Amino acid sequence: MSMDLSIVGPAFVTGLVVLATHVPLGQRVLERGIVFLDLAIAQLAATGAVAVHLLDIEAWWAVQLGALAAALLGAFALYGCERRWPRFQEALIGATFVVSASLVMLLLAGSPHGGEHLQDVLAGQILWVTWEQIAFAAAVSAGVLILWRALQGRLGGALFYALFAVAVTLSVQLVGVYLVFASLILPALVALRRGLAVGYLSGALGYGLGLAASAVLDVPAGPSVVCALALASAALGVRLRA
After folding, report:
1. Structural domain boundaries of the chain?
2. In 124-156, where does DSSP find H-type helix?
3. Residue-wise pLDDT tens digits, 152-180
4. Dihedral class, residue 106 (left if φ above 0, else alpha if ψ from -120 to 50, else beta)
5. How far is CA 8 from CA 186, 192, 193, 212, in A?
6. pTM of the entire structure?
7. Is CATH 1.10.3470.10 the right assignment for the domain spanning 5-235?
8. Distance (Å, rounded) from C-alpha 239 to C-alpha 242?
9. Cα dihedral sign, 196-199-205-208
10. Whole-number Cα distances in Å, 13 to 34, 112, 205
């Protein structure tokens, strides 16, 4: 099966937009030792989006607002937990993820298309992202990066959680929960050891190879990119610091 660049091209650009914020954010997540924060926030955003869909509201901006509201509420709640119970933060993050994931399954239990919605939440629909969505995502990502750079060194916990929630909410609507986690953690592991540029390179290679494999082999794009990101990270020599 040959590649259709009119489909693969926008998907690859989407991946680059996601990576723009996720590699530096992923570095901070690894440094803070809260690896599963992205999974929890992504799942909360997905829960908000599913809740809006179930209200028969299909407008993309409304879905984004619902997802962002859920992500921000969860992010600030987890920030409060970090300040009050830092010792149990990772456990609370994990509990947030599993409860939110279970809530999505309960919300979709009565839907005739629940299985399809759940698949979209987890694996995403990266091949069907429109240029309008990409332009919006690029603008928001640019704003996140500008704030990130401007406030570097003064980026307190609350602001970090807020920026994180915005970036993850945006990406989970584009690529799904699995790719959000992979895009945050795998290139960031490379970046911590080899520098930010090599981290971005590993992410771009992962998206490019994964999308190409998906098109040629006719397999789902999201899982294909996740596996390719892992291979690209390994190939560029991920070695954890002691």
Report:
1. 5-235
2. 131-150
3. 666 667 788 888 889 988 888 889 888 99
4. alpha
5. 22, 29, 30, 8
6. 0.84
7. yes
8. 9
9. negative
10. 28, 33, 12
